[in-house]
């Protein structure tokens, strides 16, 4: 029977699934759950060595002989430190050593409880990966179970990947130790591993219902010549920040997900993801319910299990354009359900908005046929997905990590060395947070800023339940009465403003055609804006 410590038993099963058999065990008490699991399974070849220093070097020799990872497992405290010299040797000899150290619960580190020290991270630059497993409270602790599976898979897969180097897995284990009641089938595990590019293409070739997700990509790619084949082979989701030109539907799948019943009978056989971040929260939540393999193709070794069903990670130095060409070349997937979803996507409603955030964005996207549109974070980058861009328009946005900070500064840095017109669309919090970006001499006349001023963080205003805490509401939304007119005068921007459809129409064309750097401030009521957004969602769904 396996240990009731779920993190320990998840690690045990994933070691088996990754084919890692050889385990050198050092004595101790904190690692009892690990020892129980390893020695109780005939899959593992377990050997006992008392001295941790000698055990780690012994593991190095065995790994060298077999050209495969070997585990050395120890208890907590100084036992871990004793392996340091062997780990340094393994690092510089490129030996696939896996160090598994048991640890006290984090709450007891530095509490004079004995045999405790900060074990993670302890080996720093001498390992190519070091992780600490979460302590999982019970089988209903879904997020920590997923987290544990993800980081163990990534670490073990990385340990098998050349060039070899040691990895360290630290396992906090709280009392009691001696609960061994679980069967292997009771342990919630999911397995993923690295796969070659060609093998990934073969896997995709043998599926029918395929979803292709193209994430953030800063440099535009025109796939017009590949359009028919790609769209015959996949349902495709690509937001503006992917900068893929020539496809039909962009991010429309996000709107279809407003009514998931339209997709109730659609279960994908495979999800293929390329590029970086995606914005759509609805799509992420939908795909986390899909029980199908996810293949992630990228340049780095990092395994981002965004949809909680990663099966294969592909590392390749092929360009995004080459990958899309190869995906277009595989066999067409003739499937009625896929045809239906593609028809729904092509029937996307061209909604007629009243004056609002969406009204302004729609006019901008319909008007701008060349240049760069910079989308500030939060509402703006999300609402922009409702509209199509023209062929010669590039989209940029700080969607790596950032919140509202730095959107204007980044856009101005891009514009200063770019001959095209740069349109910066921003909410008021993003703009005023970064208003010092305008205090510089590097801003050219190829900059147009559209400021959506709804006197606070509208995206927070729409959060369900916020009205339950009137005291918190003001601080979350950050209500204000700030305007940009005097700021524009200070920094030599021509200033335009509007409050409704008529004033927008009167000012927008002059703003766009102004040969000088300019700012258009669109004053919008939060309540009305949220109402219009809800009406739009209702019409779509």
Summarize this structure briefly.
This protein has 541 residues and is of the alpha/beta class.
How would you describe the overall organization of this protein?
There is one protein chain. The protein is of the alpha/beta class. It folds into three domains: 6-190, 3-Layer(aba) Sandwich (Rossmann fold); 197-346, 3-Layer(aba) Sandwich (Rossmann fold); 357-540, 3-Layer(aba) Sandwich (Rossmann fold). The protein is 35% helix and 18% strand. It has 21 helices and 20 strands. The strands form four sheets. The protein has a six-stranded parallel beta sheet with strand order 2-1-3-4-6-5, with helices on both faces. Strands 7-14-13-12-8-10 form a six-stranded parallel beta sheet, sandwiched between helices. A six-stranded parallel beta sheet has the order 16-15-17-18-20-19, sandwiched between helices. Strand 17, helix 16 and strand 18 form a beta-alpha-beta unit. It is elongated, with a radius of gyration of 28 Å.
């Amino acid at each position: 029977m396996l240990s009731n410590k779920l993190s320990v038993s998840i690690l045990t099963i994933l070691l088996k699934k990754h084919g890692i058999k050889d385990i050198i065990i050092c004595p101790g008490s904190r690692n009892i759950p690990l020892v129980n699991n390893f020695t109780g399974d005939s899959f593992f070849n377990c050997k006992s060595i008392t001295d941790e220093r000698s055990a780690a070097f012994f593991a190095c020799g065995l790994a060298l002989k077999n050209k495969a990872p070997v585990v050395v497992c120890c208890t907590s405290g100084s036992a871990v430190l004793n392996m340091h010299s062997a780990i340094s040797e393994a690092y510089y000899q490129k030996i696939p050593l896996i160090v598994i150290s048991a640890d006290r619960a984090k709450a007891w580190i530095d509490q004079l409880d004995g045999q405790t020290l900060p074990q993670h991270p302890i080996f720093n630059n001498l390992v190519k990966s070091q992780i600490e497993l979460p302590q999982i409270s019970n089988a209903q602790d879904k997020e920590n179970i997923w987290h544990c599976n993800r980081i163990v898979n990534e670490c073990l897969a990385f340990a098998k990947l050349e060039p070899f180097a040691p990895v360290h897995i630290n396992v906090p284990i709280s009392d009691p130790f001696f609960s061994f009641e679980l069967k292997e089938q009771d342990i919630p595990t999911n397995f993923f591993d690295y796969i070659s590019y060609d093998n990934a293409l073969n896997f995709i070739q043998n599926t029918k219902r395929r979803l292709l997700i193209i994430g953030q990509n800063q440099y535009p790619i025109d796939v017009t010549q590949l359009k028919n084949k790609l769209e015959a082979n996949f349902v495709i989701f690509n937001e503006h920040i992917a900068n893929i030109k020539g496809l039909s539907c962009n991010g429309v799948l996000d709107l279809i997900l407003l009514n998931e019943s339209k997709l109730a009978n659609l279960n994908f056989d495979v999800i293929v993801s390329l590029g970086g971040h995606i914005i759509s929260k609805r799509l992420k939540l939908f795909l986390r319910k899909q029980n199908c393999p996810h293949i992630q193709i990228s340049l780095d070794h990092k395994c981002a299990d965004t949809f909680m069903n990663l099966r294969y990670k592909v590392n390749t130095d092929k360009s995004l354009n080459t990958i899309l060409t190869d995906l277009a070349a595989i066999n067409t997937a003739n499937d009625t359900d896929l045809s239906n979803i593609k028809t729904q996507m092509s029937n996307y409603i061209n909604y007629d908005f009243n004056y609002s955030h969406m009204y302004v964005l729609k006019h901008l996207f319909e008007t701008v046929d060349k240049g760069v549109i910079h989308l500030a974070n939060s509402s703006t980058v999300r609402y922009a997905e409702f509209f199509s861009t023209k062929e010669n328009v590039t989209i940029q946005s700080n969607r790596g990590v950032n919140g509202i900070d730095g959107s204007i500064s980044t856009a101005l840095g891009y514009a200063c060395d770019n001959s095209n017109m740069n349109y910066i669309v921003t909410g008021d919090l993003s703009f005023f947070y970064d208003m010092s970006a305008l205090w510089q001499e590097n801003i050219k006349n190829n900059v147009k800023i559209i400021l959506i001023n709804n006197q606070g963080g509208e995206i927070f205003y729409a959060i369900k339940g916020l009205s339950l805490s009137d005291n918190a509401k003001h601080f979350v939304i950050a209500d204000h009465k700030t305007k940009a007119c005097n700021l524009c005068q200070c920094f030599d921007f021509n200033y335009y403003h509007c409050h409704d459809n008529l004033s927008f129409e009167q000012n927008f064309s002059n703003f766009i055609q102004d040969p000088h750097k300019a700012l258009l401030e669109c004053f919008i009521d939060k309540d009305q804006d949220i109402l219009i957004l809800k009406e739009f969602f209702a019409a779509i769904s």
